[in-house]
Amino acid sequence: MTTTLEIRRPDDWHLHLRDGATLAGVLPASAQAFARAIVMPNLVPPVVTGAQAAAYRDRIRAALPEGARFTPLMTLYLTEETDPEDVVRAHAEGLVTAVKLYPAGATTNSASGVRDFGRVRGVLERMAEAGVPLCVHGEVTDPDIDIFDREAVFIERVLDPMRRATPGLRVVMEHVTTADAVTYVKSAERDLGATITVHHLVINRNHLLAGGIRPHYYCLPVAKRETHRQALREAAVSGDPRFFLGTDSAPHVDAEKETACGCAGIFTAPVALPVLAEVFEAEGALDRLEGFTSRHGPAFYGLPVNEETVTLEKGEATVPPARVETGDGPVTVFDPGFPLHWRLRA
Ligand SMILES: NC(=O)N[C@@H](CC(=O)O)C(=O)O
Ligand SMILES: [Zn+2]
Ligand SMILES: [Zn+2]
């Protein structure tokens, strides 16, 4: 007998689709599983203006497989030169859903990010007035701060002061990895949400480093110790609407992962929903999966939920593809380290 679970079609509130041949290779996995996705703007060069976002959106639409039903929700990459009026206009026109803040140097393709947070004060104030959400990569970049502490220090030194200085600004703390972030998000009455990835619910830093270094488990923010993973799992399955799915599926071709200085990013899109079903089932919380994947995100962004549903079914363990071929080279798919009994019904 197969067990089935019907849920509203999920959305991915944090996704990297890249461009060109990689975009064409990785897009089908997300378009199959998700109705909408917040598409990250960290291309080279980054997506900074409304016009660039429109052009990128059109390239994504053109790369969609025949018959796909997938809506890319575009973001702008915040720089110290960002024009507040361009942001507000692009949001009002429905072209852009959110703005993304990368501290300069914090992660993949973040060189054009913000160095001096005082210089984006004006933009953030306009965004708060106009109701434009800010998605934040929450890590400090100070070389004196240990990489495992960079998220917690960011909350204290940057995020909390920024939120206090800009009342009404709606903020998503992206890809939270620590109990500190979970506590901080829960402490906010309003205007703060957080995305949680699939991989941070599954791996801790031992998976990355013990018994050999595993480049395909390397991402930023880096996976933390087990107690933090437990805090993330509790938050994800709690039913608290401030926490929702953002896979941060971040494909890099294998040649750029399996090298002396490998890129940060884990490609989870092809297995995201089966892995989540396993996690929620293990936590005895399958009835809360739909909230996490399909209801809390739209509620935060003020968007309608998807009317369409998908069916997950449980049966024999399946072996997902180890990698996806793209015109730029193969991209290894996240291996959760346990068998997947759940799959998305075609
Ligand atoms: N998460 C990652 O490790 N990498 C992301 C960037 C990001 O989301 O920080 C990427 O673009 O590859
Ligand atoms: Zn990030
Ligand atoms: Zn990301």
Would you write up a description of this structure?
The protein has 346 residues and is of the alpha/beta class. 34% of the residues lie in helices and 18% in strands. The chain has helices spanning 20-33, 50-63, 84-92, 121-130, 150-165, 179-187, 205-209, 226-237, 254-257, 272-282, 289-301, and strands at 3-8, 12-15, 36-39, 71-77, 96-101, 134-136, 171-173, 192-196, 243-245, 309-318, 323-326, 329-332, 340-344. Helix 3 runs parallel beside helix 4 (121-130). It binds N-carbamoyl-L-aspartate and zinc ion (2 copies). Residues 16, 42, 107-108, 137, 219-220, 248, 250, 264-265 line the site of N-carbamoyl-L-aspartate. N-carbamoyl-L-aspartate binds at residues 16, 42, 107-108, 137, 219-220, 248, 250, 264-265.
User: What is the name of the CATH topology?
Assistant: TIM Barrel
Mean pLDDT: 97
Biggest sheet overview: 8 strands, parallel
Total number of β-strand segments? 13
Helix count, DSSP H or I runs of 4 or more residues: 11
- Structural class, by secondary structure, is alpha/beta
Give the helix level as a range of percent.
25-40%
| CATH superfamily heading | Metal-dependent hydrolases
Low-pLDDT parts are none
CATH level-two architecture = Alpha-Beta Barrel
